[in-house]
Amino acid sequence: MEKSPERDMRTGWFRRRFALMIGLLLVVSIVSACGGTSDNAASEPAGTEQAETTEPSEPAAAEPQKKELVKVSQVTNWFAEPEHGGQYAALMKGFYEEAGLDMTIQPGGPQISSTQIVASGQAEFGMTQADSLLLARKEGIPLVAIAALFQKNPQGLIFHKEEDLKDFSDLAGRKVYVAAAAGYWEYIKKKYALEGKVEEMKYTGSLVNFINEKTSVTQGYVTAEPFALMEQGVETGMLLHADSGYNPYANILFTTEKMLQEKPELVKAFVEASIKGWDYYKTNYEEVNPFIQEKNPDMTLDGMKYGAENQMELVYGGDAETGGVGYMTEERWSELTDQLLEIGLLDEKEDVSKVYTNEYLPKK
Known about the structure:
Layout: H1 5-33, H2 39-42, E1 70-75, H3 85-92, H4 95-98, E2 101-106, H5 114-119, E3 125-128, H6 130-138, E4 143-150, E5 155-160, E6 175-178, H7 183-191, E7 199-202, H8 208-212, E8 217-221, H9 225-231, E9 236-240, E10 250-256, H10 257-262, H11 264-295, H12 301-310, H13 312-316, H14 320-323, H15 330-342
Parallel strand pairs: 1-2, 1-3, 6-7, 6-8
Antiparallel strand pairs: 3-10, 4-10, 5-8, 5-9
């Protein structure tokens, strides 16, 4: 019998429907065998896992912006040494940075005038002696002392120990190596009537002549030259200028009147960070000295330890015991002004209230 096309079509349709129903039944059976997944899970494409629902994460807290540091510089009165210990401690320990300052310390040295550098605006702060500041003001340079780091002046006249000088009157008949027109020397000559009784020699920084001439005397610092000479086998004694009655504050920090008027907060930040450095250096000088030595490799750690230990009373004694490091008095400034007038280095007495201020020192 010949196949009817209509029948073939109808038969094909039933076969397809039957195959589709069988397929659906197989799917349902497989799903049921998987152990009762949820309707949502069953409706997902095969092989797809349902995504976990998570709470939206909170945005990360923004990091606080660092305060922009102010670039400033200070110039010291000599190459890096323990006499600048607190300044370098403040730099090393980050005290200047904490105060908002990006600090540069410029070392002084021969032929470098800290007063001229600050006056010209090449540095905001400087270091000098009190008498040098008064003489700068005499020349019309409006500088103001903002801290006195040494209460007692470390300068003096060094002699060979076997000479056993008792006081400045014993200088008569000797060679004295001293800087020209030094205020202390003019004062000592007048007070002890030494004019024409000593052979004044130009001080060059070299100790060779002093070493070879046993009766000679040379200027120096109690914190430095005695140790250098001891290393060469020379035992010494010293007459401190301060013991003659001439005792200008040493290593004073200063700035200009303009800086005080326009940027008082900057001055305060600088002074407070510097004093914090000196407070730290007092008991941690052996930690700080290697940092100073990096700036001045000519210094030995033994020599620096000697200097730090011999300046303790000069920095932290006197009025600093009650007023804190850097403290100054009107009485001391007035006395110094009178002495400079007496020896002819000043022409008129200045109002010392314009010369110094304790305003920026940390409160005790």
